[in-house]
Design a protein that fits this description.
Number of domains: 1
Oligomer: single chain
Strand content: 5-15%
Largest sheet: 2 strands, parallel
Structural class: alpha+beta
Radius of gyration: 12 Å
Amino acid sequence: MGRTHALLLAERGATVVVNGTRADVAGESGDARIAESVVGDIRESGGSAVAATSDISSPDGASTTATSVLDYVEDLRRFVPPALRS
């Protein structure tokens, strides 16, 4: 899952939570600005999105992200997990 999926889902009316902290589009080291950039693109096109920038590989980070998501998205109907790079 990535930018293209997030933009497509937003275009179709979904509120999108973009998680990203440590990888750029090539899977290399990056930062939260990537997620924030995708959120900016979605909002500029009239969609609804928020960046969740906690590292979800740790229990604390996953908990923080889940809390942020539920605070932002009142009616969670679908969760699309990211594709992991192995």
